[in-house]
Amino acid sequence: MTTLVKPALLARLRTSIPQVIDIWFEGVEAGAQSPGAAAMARWWGFQRSREENDRFNSQCREKFGAVLDDIKDLPAQSHAQQIAREMSEASTPLDKYHSVLGLVLLFDQMPRCIFPATNPLIYAHYDQIAQAVSQDAISKGLDAQANAKSMAWRLWFYMPLEHSESIEQHEQLARLLEEMKDDSPYYKNTSDFAARHHEIIEKFGRYPYRNEALGRQSTDSELEWIRQNGNPFATQ
């Protein structure tokens, strides 16, 4: 089998993944149905000052900026498949679950913490890797192998679908969330948030607030929408 990703990079990923899990899920117990106030602040910026947000982002940059930089020039799809395969070769089901979930978070969330929202690599590169890893995990049932009834954990396998500009992936996300509606009081907030993203993709076929970063020409209706809404999901 041809190795596309250098062993040194895979070793760095294996070192980084447990740190991603630790920093992202600090204070969130295994099996938790709701994440708690501290995690909500960390993830969504709720009731958190800009200084607190900047400190967390700086921590992410210090820990994970180098490994993301190592991957920025790699073709997304082919390398995502190999990376996912390598990371899923863990010794126990729980280790495998954490390895792949950490990989999804590394590519889906850490670029949003580390880079400004105007950086096209977030959407054109890292999101593509995250979506490929997420879909691979879902197809193998890894998302449901551990913490299967924990919305606070399992949701993060699906976040790349919400960030996708594919209406099919948004419809897939809605189905996956529906499967969990009886397992968590966190379901309504999560599904409402996903529905708001879905509405934008359904209306425009893309996220208009990404157009400038990606060098896309906005339509008149998109410009009006941006004028009224900006980026409604930005945390800073």
From TrEMBL:
InterPro entries: DUF924, TPR-like_helical_dom_sf. SUPFAM superfamilies: TPR-like. Gene3D superfamilies: Tetratricopeptide repeat domain, TPR-like. Pfam families: DUF924. This is DUF924-domain-containing protein. It comes from Jaminaea rosea.
